[in-house]
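Final report, Chapter 2: Outcomes

The project's central promise was a pipeline that accepts a single protein chain and returns its three-dimensional structure in a standardized token representation, suitable for archiving and comparison. That pipeline is now operational. To close this chapter, we reproduce one record exactly as it appears in the project archive, with the input sequence first and the structure output second.
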Amino acid sequence: MTGTSIKQALRMAQHALMGSDTAQIDAELLLAAALGKPRTHLYTWPEQILTPAQRSYFESVLERRVLGEPVAYIIGTRDFWTLNLRVNRHVLIPRPETELLVETALALVTTPEAQIADLGTGSGAIALALASERRLWKVVATDMSIAALTVASDNASLLGIPNVEFRQGSWCESLEPAQFDLIVSNPPYIDAADPHLAQGDLRFEPRSALVAADEGLADIHALCSQASNHLKTGGWLLLEHGWTQGSSVRGSLEQNGFDAVSTLKDLNGNDRVTLGRRGLSPPALP
């Protein structure tokens, strides 16, 4: 690739990635990272010649992508909501459909100084998106993984978002009773037998953040069972789930005393987020 221009490098990368549905954007993101420039630079200066160091780096990251590694892990960042988040193999890669959780939470809670919890926070995507939009909200973000909490905490510091507290714990175990106006979670919801786990980006992401027992519903059932005791009366539980799981999630919420239960569809028309409101008589603490 001696004397390779930006335009030539993009063309060659797209050819190398031709089996991918996202070949063009992948090539752009990798080359922009190699140059240390925004993607717009690639089309503003298409004849710019890559330096030997830029060319070597680009070739190495392109090979990693050809072998299937997610671009987000290769370049170490992923955009979510209005934020650019650091990510690594300890956390799930934030996905656009999860922004529906953020949109819904912002619409549901109108209290200026609300208390919010994000359970299984991973990179901190949901918690930080909410906290960035509502600077008076107090957001608690929990995760079992210390490595994930390190990523999330670093993101909060880098983005200058101070109104998030990070705690280690499994689901509701680190929460106080009847404290929150809303609890939100994107829990593991993939069945261990799902063939998609052996395909695409999922091969590289932490399995503990993807897979749940009981056909992918075990953690959702646990959240439905535990969350009511940590919500104020009228508080909401908001869950992301798989596109075939809407009915099961609604049933679990209703069985655990939630009312106003409903399911929202993502931009592809698939069931994606289900919510319920804590009624006047939550289950007793165990």
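Archive annotation: Residues 6-67 form a domain with the Helicase, Ruva Protein; domain 3 fold (CATH 1.10.8.10).
This record, like all others produced under the grant, will remain available to the consortium after the project formally closes.
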